[in-house]
Amino acid sequence: MKIKNFTDLIKALEPLKKNNDLIFRGQSNVDWEILPKSGRNGFSEKYTKTLPERQVFNSWIRYAKSHLSRYPETEWDWLAIAQHHGLATRLLDWTKNPLVSAFFACIENNDNDGVIYYYKLTDVLEFDERTISPFDFKGFNIFFPSGLVSRIINQRGLFTITDKPTVGLEKQLKGGLKKIIISKESKESIIMSLDFYGINKMSLYNDIDNLSEYLNDYVANNHSNNLNQIITEE
Length: 234
Hints:
single chain, alpha+beta, four-stranded mixed β-sheet, three-stranded antiparallel β-sheet, globular
């Protein structure tokens, strides 16, 4: 089944609500592999023994400290913050909210179908983040970060991690990974419906840059009839 409108999307998600152990990920191009950024072309071939991923990450920490008022307590949370500020890491973003994943499936690449992946959490390994580095972790697992970054909380975010970042999760998880395809023709209307229900750049990123971009989108798309919902005059 291919999603053709917001009603189709809700119908597809409705049977899943009984499973509280599902995680979701949206990608705006159905043809993309499910890879963390450090495992994608442009990064995977650049990370070598002479320029390891861990070395780049440690450099990021050294310079990022001047921008933070509070430091994470573990290397895992440092990596989560780096991930959410754009560094190419082996973490991959997921969410517990399927509508958040729908947003990311629809927000870009309007010439391509989007996709929502969902996965039932099974055999999640408990580990002590203080005693093992994410760069030494073996296999596949889930990481729930602390609440140091508000956008992670706003997006009900969590991460998957694997010691094989260059191998797509569709190959690693095999039959355990399910998907919902969203037609490219429906993306714009679904984004508008999600906005009505409070899922948009302003709410998900919760920073001034995305507030500005959100309002610019309203102006550019002539949504003046809805502007009073987010702008009030004193």
